[in-house]
Design brief:
With 338 residues, the chain is α+β, with helices and mostly antiparallel strands. It contains eleven helices and 20 strands. The chain has helices at 41-47, 65-76, 105-112, 146-156, 179-182, 190-199, 215-225, 246-252, 287-290, 295-304, 311-315, and strands spanning 2-5, 13-14, 18-22, 26-31, 52-56, 62-64, 81-83, 91-95, 99-103, 117-121, 126-128, 133-139, 143-145, 162-166, 171-177, 204-211, 231-235, 256-260, 271-274, 280-284. The strands form six sheets. The protein has a six-stranded mixed beta sheet with strand order 16-15-17-20-19-18, sandwiched between helices. A four-stranded antiparallel beta sheet has the order 7-8-12-10. A three-stranded antiparallel beta sheet has the order 1-5-2, with no helix packed on it. The longest helix is centred in the N-terminal third of the chain and has 12 residues, at 65-76.
């Protein structure tokens, strides 16, 4: 800290807040700690009676919080992300479009392990709308060692930590299985739920087929819709009962099965597969019909964005994969799926 004449303070960093009092108009901090003095500030400071100022002495190895925030912003900001102006050493990032928010959590952990650096984000792999807040970046002190930012940039490795992937899938085919629905003994209440959930991702149900039980019949229905939609959803018949044929039919259809089962409740009996052309096919357990938030809601943001999932992606849902069945569901703003 150093005391200098106000008229010589341009470009220097203030050490503390400076209060301005305008009787009947304003009383408060006119200049905040960390503010970099400009030429335009000098007359105002002098009018406040500040002939001298205490400033930080920045050497070549130190970086001001505003400049540090810019470095962290560059580390974080990938595709389809907007940024705020830097304010008091902080920059906020927000979604520029609807889509799936992706984040490299491993690199985020490593960067946040560097002392005096902070990047706070929302949950990875979640659905976001244009304008939604994604992250905030800043350093803890007013000035930080340049070497720490260099280390963070090295961890980044030229590839930003986060992106928003726009939704790509536009249409879905729904295959309703089960003799009880096929023969009209009960009403199909599953499809209306899917129509509503898919609309949040801009996906329309373009084909709907109801089939009787039997692997051959379900397989034939899958083949019938293969070239008619970007996504295929099979509802019902996903448990381990001997007469539940949906998993077997999906396998017989030629899809490569990624997983049958996930460490998530509700929704443990989900199935995901892909055809050779990349079209995803899902076998959905009955809970998707009646529970507000299930495994289906956890995986759909990435599927809708055209991101191919693997077994490890499902294994990772185990931590946070237990829905707490809160009386007032606040999904996705809850720990479920964290």
């Amino acid at each position: 800290m150093k005391l200098i004449k106000t008229t010589e303070a341009v470009g220097h960093v203030l050490c503390h807040d400076l209060t301005q009092i305008l009787p009947g108009e304003f009383k408060g901090a006119r200049f905040r700690k960390g503010h970099i003095v400009t030429e335009e500030d000098i007359p105002v400071l002098l009018s406040m009676g500040k002939e001298n100022l205490y400033i930080f002495e920045l050497d070549a190895g130190k970086v001001h919080e505003n400049d540090a925030a810019e470095v962290l912003c560059e580390i974080c900001k990938g595709d389809n992300i907007d940024r705020s102006e830097v304010k008091e050493g902080k920059i906020e990032l927000s979604a520029a479009c609807d889509g799936c928010f992706t984040l490299d959590t491993d690199r985020l952990y490593r960067i946040n392990s560097i002392d005096e650096i902070m990047i706070a984000t929302r949950k990875a792999n979640t659905a976001v709308c244009a304008g939604d807040k994604l992250a905030g970046t800043r350093v803890i002190p007013l000035v930080i060692d340049k070497d720490k930012l260099t280390e963070a940039t090295a961890i980044m490795g030229g590839d930003p930590l986060m992106n928003v992937i726009p939704y790509k899938l536009k249409t879905a085919a729904v295959i309703t299985t089960g003799s009880e629905v096929y023969h009209g003994r009960i009403e199909d209440k599953f499809t209306p739920v899917l129509i509503d959930k898919l609309s949040a991702y801009g996906i329309q149900v373009s084909v709907h087929i109801t089939v009787d039980d039997g692997i051959e019949k379900i397989t034939a229905a899958i083949e019938q819709v293969r070239d008619k939609a970007d996504l295929i959803l099979c509802t019902g018949g996903m448990s381990v009962d001997p007469d539940d044929n949906t998993p077997g039919a999906i396998k017989e259809s030629g899809a490569k099965i990624i997983t049958y089962g996930a460490p998530v409740l509700p929704g443990a009996m989900i199935l995901l597969g892909y055809f050779e052309d990349g079209t995803p096919i899902l076998g959905l357990p009955g809970c998707v019909m009646y529970a507000k938030a299930t495994v289906f809601d956890l995986v759909m943001p990435r599927i809708a964005a055209g991101i191919r999932l693997n077994k490890a992606d499902f294994v990772a849902y185990g931590e946070g994969g237990l829905c707490l069945s809160c009386p007032d569901c606040t999904y996705p703003h809850c720990p479920f799926g964290k």
